[in-house]
Amino acid sequence: MTKTVHDITKRTSIGAQRNPASEEAILTAAAEILREGGLSAFSIEAVARRAKAGKPTIYRWWPSKAALLLDVYHRQKGETFYADTGNTREDLIVFLETLLGFWKTSAGEVFRSIIAEAQSNPDALEALRDYAVTRCLASGVILNRGVARGEIREGLDIPLVMELFSSFCWQRLLTGRLDASREQLSHLVDAVLTGFATKDRRAQ
After folding, report:
1. Closest Cα to residue 135, out of 107, 111, 159?
2. CATH 3.90.226.10 for the 74-194 domain, yes or no
3. Where are the alpha helices (DSSP H) in 62-121?
4. What is the pLDDT of residue 198?
5. Residues 99, 181, 177, CA angle at the centre, nearest 5°?
6. How many whole angstroms separate alpha carbon 19 and alpha carbon 181?
7. What is the pLDDT of residue 6?
8. Which residue range or ranges hold the HTH tetR-type domain (predicted)?
9. Mean pLDDT of the chain
10. Which residues of 40-56 are buried (b: 16+ CB within 10 A; e: fewer)?
11. What pLDDT was estimated at residue 195?
12. Model-level pTM?
């Protein structure tokens, strides 16, 4: 029988190194609380109670509420944002559509709260900064595929370019304008691509 977070009542802390069972229980408890009660119900105390974990353990692994929320958010998000259609332009449009669509769910509220907390909490800011850097690196797979296909020139600062696209999405999230049309997203992608597409691609 598969155990739930509530079945796991005794765990062993192993210092700064995360105990896999404890980590899974804490993340599962955090996700359940968010799903059932939203952000207003979310706190380290509530997560600790449901996961049957000590608050010191949680704070040792996640130094702020935002850091824990980021891990929960990322588990919800997964790695499904980098479609390979065989065309870099279309891949980028799909990436933008998918991210903006994902933020129309409760995940958007979670991510906005993380950004808000980062404005006054140094630990939250560090967690958000690290997350943003890793996501720009991960989403760079879209442009790396374009380089391999000869659509994008070599030597491009790919994380920086992906930060341009992500910044557009963040601004839309923070100003409540997630309903960008495919036409608008196409214009955005085309405007950026003309700056680093290969000469052959520009001529098409």
Report:
1. 159
2. no
3. 65-77, 88-102, 106-118
4. 64
5. 65
6. 44
7. 31
8. 20-80
9. 86
10. eebebeebbebbbbeee
11. 75
12. 0.78
By C-alpha distance, which of 163, 78, 72 is closest to 114?
A: 72
Q: Pick the residue with more confidence: 38 or 165?
A: 165
Contacts of 170 (CB under 8 A, 6+ apart): 115
User: Rounded distance, CA 99 to CA 171, Å?
Assistant: 12
Q: Which two tokens stand for residue 55?
A: 């608050």
Rg (CA), the chain: 20
**How far from chain centre, in Å, is Cα 156?**
23
For 10, 127, 166, 176, the CA distances from 124, given in Å and listed in that order, are 29, 5, 19, 22
Handedness of CA 156, 162, 165, 171 (dihedral sign): negative
**Residue 175: CB atoms within 10 Å:** 8
CATH number of 20-61: 3.30.2130.30, 3.20.20.70, 1.10.10.60, 3.40.50.300?
Answer: 1.10.10.60
